[in-house]
Design brief:
Elements lengths: L18 E4 L4 E4 L3 H19 L5 E8 L4 E2 L4 E4 L14 E2 L3 H6 L8 E10 L3
Parallel strand pairs: 5-6
Antiparallel strand pairs: 1-2, 3-4, 3-5, 3-7
Amino acid sequence: MINPNDKSFRNYTDEAFIYGWCDDCGNGVVLSDVDEIKEDIDKLYANFCAEHGTEPLYAMCEIVWKDEKFIEPSPVTVKLSSDADDATDEKIFFYCDGIEDLKSLAVFGVEDFVITSCNYLTNEL
């Protein structure tokens, strides 16, 4: 376990590279590298656009709920536009306005969750 405040090593567990322990607040936290996540999204986006000749409509992402520090057990679907579609609404976890907005979800911000990885981009649900 790593203390995220001073980056000191505490102990090694089976999931040591996923979680950290904060001595200040006494909580386990999910560790993520925001810059790395943003770079991964940029690479996925560039590869998708090059391969398909169009921008993706959806991102399949891993998230952590901020308050509960709960990792969502399966990837969630983020629509890369704010256009609602009654046919797919029940499948959409979150709507954002493009790839830059998606990358902003990797930063601890105003939403109730944080993206910890983007698995892939797609145009199909």
